[in-house]
Amino acid sequence: MSRAIDRDSQRFKKIVRGKIRGDLKKYVTQGEMLGRKGRETVSIPVPNIQIPHFRHGKKGSGGVGQGEGEDGQPIGRGGRPGDGDGPGTAGNEPGRHIREVEVSLEELAEMLGEALELPNIEPKGRDEISATKDRYNSVRRTGPDSLRHVKRTYKRALKRSIAAGEFDPKNPVVIPVRDDEEYRSWTTRPEPQANAAVIYMMDVSGSMTEEQKGIVRTEAFWIDTWLKKQYGGLQRRYIVHDAVAHEVDEDTFYRTRESGGTRISSAYAACEKIIARDFPPSEWNVYAFQFSDGDNWGEDNADCLAKLTDDILPDCNLFCYGQVESPYGSGDYLRELRRVEGEHDRLILSEIENREAIFDSIKDFLGTGR
Amino acid sequence: MPFSTHRPLPKEIRKLQDSIEAKAAEYGLDFFDTVFEMVDYDEMSMLAAYGGFPVRYPHWRFGAEYDEMMKSYSYGLSKIYEMVINTDPCYAYLLTANELADQKLVIAHVYGHCDFFKQNAWFSKTNRRMLDQMANHAARINRYVDRFGYEEVEKFVDRCLSIEDLIDPHLPFATPREEVARHAEEERKRHETAPPADRFEAKSYMDEFVNPRETLEKQDRERKERDESARDSRKFPERPERDVLLFLLDHAPLKDWQHDVLSIIRDEAYYYFPQGQTKIMNEGWASYWHTTIMTQFALDPSEVVTYADHHSGTMATSPQRLNPYKLGIELFRDIEERWNKGQYGSDWETCDDRGAKENWDLELGEGREKIFEVRRVHNDITFIEEFLTPEFCAKHKMFSFAYNDSTDYYEIASREFQKIKKQLLTSLTNHGRPVIRVLDGNYRNRGELLLGHDWGGVELRQDWAKATLSNLSELWGRPVNLETTVDDEPAVMFCDRDEFDVTPKNPRARRRRPDAMRFG
């Protein structure tokens, strides 16, 4: 039966979502939710989802409290505006505060998709790669205390003590022994899904500053979020390079700072190696994203183009090159790629001048539906 | 009336109810019939979100509250134990998951509330058939939703709710306005037909000299002119109007359905108002009776620990927020003790001998009787005004605190009795909310609305005031102005939908006479 409160609560959620949607561009470009990432959800502070009334401000306000303390002793913060009443009236109203709304990443991706009019991706039709998933749906006799099934344990203990004639209804004490313990347990199930791999490449030579890396990080977060929604499983690999390339983990990817020259072909070689090793293109949807400020050693360009067009492009769903504008970079490399852009529809180029441009750049990259 | 669950009350709970009810009646509590229902936490949250009623009109804020309650319950932050609504019969809800000791406590507590609802004077004008009324409101608003669309109605309800607290708490007790108007009219007529009062008494042969005919006629003419011009330039409203909602109902350009929705919101606001007005007393009274009934009658020895734990949790105090349960129960106990021992009246007040005061006991035994009287006639403000004593404040370590602008902290301000009392009364006045009145419905002769804020030392939160004024201007259809204080200076907020402006108050506009308005 559908209850009235479900209707009201659905409506409330819809309003909240609407607010988020309205401010989506702000959330996307500021990247302020990166730090708030939970496993499956992000929480977003949504102000102003309340009905305004005439209320007193903080200035000149006060109240009465109870307890120890000298005159002048602080008892509570005034709080930011919007945090509600602060301490005060004799409990007439519950404290109001900014609502932190939890939104699943999937839902966020959906909003992003709607806002950018991103087409859904048609995965290459191979679902045979299977991921495994654990489900807690059984019990067993051993396990950690945190998984102890208290009710079952006590039921067993009760049964045992009745059977043994130890149970006294007047003094109904039931004490489980080792043999009574039961624990929650899981079974592992394979789940077929279309899998995707993302390979991120970034130039970490001296000309890339923190600001540029921040932009890359934010953009990568949203690319991940969108692709995760499109594919059941998403594998990520990270490559940093200056004159030589290294495969690194996510954390290092954003932190590393090298100096020295830039040889993009080294990254392409590493990328090619990873694809060959981990992601045979017949089974994987491979995405490659390269971020750079456009600097490259002039004599390396020919080598790069050859590697890209001959080796990488045929193996990828998409190869995206994002050029971040930096005060030091020349931006030449984009021009090189522009020359071959027309011949390869899997090659996508995008220029990201500043944070504001992240929004459109995501659309450039993912707007093809591949 | 279809009700929420239709589940029969479990036998053991029924038995508890009967015995506790009998005991409560024996103590002299006088309540409406009370119907208990068992609900699970989900249902409890739903009812709580709906203000205790099973059927309300559709609105997202109920969903928001439900959401928050379910969340804070599932995170273990809070739990609603009981709920009772002011109707005849009273409906009260028990949580299925509670253990028996808790159920007993809640049942005893509920009888305290029911007695309070029935006996306290401030509840005397509330609609005891609110259950039907709420359902009726829901049906009406649902009908408008069907006809005019969900979002249209919701938008309007949001605006009405934004000003729902701008009502006149004393209105239910005032002489009906028609009567006041009729009296005024009669008064005026009598005044008009009465012989001119400016005649001096004189012997008949002197009359012509003492009261020259020309002068009399001139005075008469002048008076009539004065009366007429006074009637023409009458202000509207005649006196500042505290019930802003009523003023809008009477004068705002609302469609029929909007008029109905606004009157529904107003009805419900009046229904809930006394509960906020008597929070300390009501909770104090209910707590007083649950401890009395539990400790003297209902508690099984095996339940003592559970009971004590629950009770002390309810009574917990914090430096930042007065616990109405605690303050209320302690004040009732204090009054009971003082009247038992005769610690009141002029002998007591003028006594300077500390020793004599400490051992003062006239063995009057009037305590119980006194607290029953107190619960009948007082509300929180008069309760504090009359019964808060310096001894009580010291015993309970009460202090007043104030906001410090420079540190952004609330700091302990004083432990002086007068200051504590003043601060407490200020926080309780109008639930600690600003008092706003309609001053002029034809401000600047442009059909604008002029409101006045009774400034009592605390300024309005400007962002909220702006949003609220914007809603008001949507309802009024014309710009709305609010006289208030901003940064310690008198100022006027102006709002026309999205346009908002604050200007220092024009000294000429301060005179609110219509003739001065023309220049303002």
Q: The biggest beta sheet of chain B, please?
A: 5 strands, mixed
Give the uncertain stretches of chain A in residue-range form: 80-97
User: What is the fold-level CATH name, i.e. the topology of the largest domain in chain A?
Assistant: Rossmann fold
Question: What is the terminal separation of chain B in angstroms?
Answer: 56 Å
Question: Over all CA atoms, what is the radius of gyration of chain A?
Answer: 28 Å
Instruction: Look at the structure and give the mean pLDDT of chain A.
Output: 80
Q: Tell me the domain tally of chain A.
A: 3
Largest interface: A-B, 53 and 80 residues
Structural class of chain A: alpha/beta
Domain SpoVR protein-like N-terminal (chain B): 11-432
Domain SpoVR-like C-terminal (chain B): 434-485
Protein name (chain B): SpoVR family protein
Region (Disordered) (chain B): 211-236
Can you give a write-up of this model?
The complex is a heterodimer of chains A (370) and B (520). Chain A contains 10 helices and 12 strands. Chain A has 370 residues and is of the alpha/beta class. Chain A has 3 domains: 72 residues, no CATH class; 59 residues, no CATH class; 174 residues, Rossmann fold. A 6-stranded mixed β-sheet of chain A has the order 9-8-7-10-11-12, sandwiched between helices. About 5% of the residues of chain A have low confidence. Chain B has 5 domains: 131 residues, no CATH class; 72 residues, no CATH class; 56 residues, no CATH class; 91 residues, no CATH class; 84 residues, no CATH class. Chain B has 22 helices and 10 strands. In chain B, the strands form 3 sheets. A 5-stranded mixed β-sheet of chain B has the order 6-7-8-9-10, with helices on one face. In chain B, strand 8 and strand 9 form a beta hairpin. Chains A and B meet through helix 1, strand 2 and strand 3 of A and helix 3, helix 6, helix 14, strand 4 and strand 5 of B.
